[in-house]
Amino acid sequence: MGAMQKIALVLVIVGAINWGLIGFFQINLVSSIFGGISTMPERIVYALVGLSGLYCITLLFRTSEVREREGRIQPT
Fold it and tell me: For residues 33 and 41, what is the distance between their CA atoms, to the nearest angstrom?
């Protein structure tokens, strides 16, 4: 897994945790962290999470041949 994929995955996980906190406890962690300063950092985080989610969609459609070529899995 490349660096770009790892960063995207971490941001998607952050977004999922934030949505879970909103759904279960009505706590918006991103807003709590950045809300007092300005809304721009908060919007940047949300935009990056959204872009990361779109990027992670491509991981669903990667063929096993591509992963084999990259040495990620052994052929069966």
Answer: 10
CA dihedral 46, 51, 53, 54 (to 10 degrees): 150
For 24-50, what is each residue's pLDDT tens digit? 999 999 988 887 667 888 899 999 999
Q: Is the separation of the CB atoms in 4 and 56 below 8 Å?
A: no
Q: Please indicate, yes or no, whether the overall pTM of this predicted structure exceeds 0.85.
A: no
φ and ψ at 24, to 5 degrees? -85, -40
Rg (CA), the chain: 16
Terminal alpha carbon distance of the chain: 20
Q: 12, 54 in Cβ contact below 8 A?
A: no
Structure tokens at 67: 């992963």
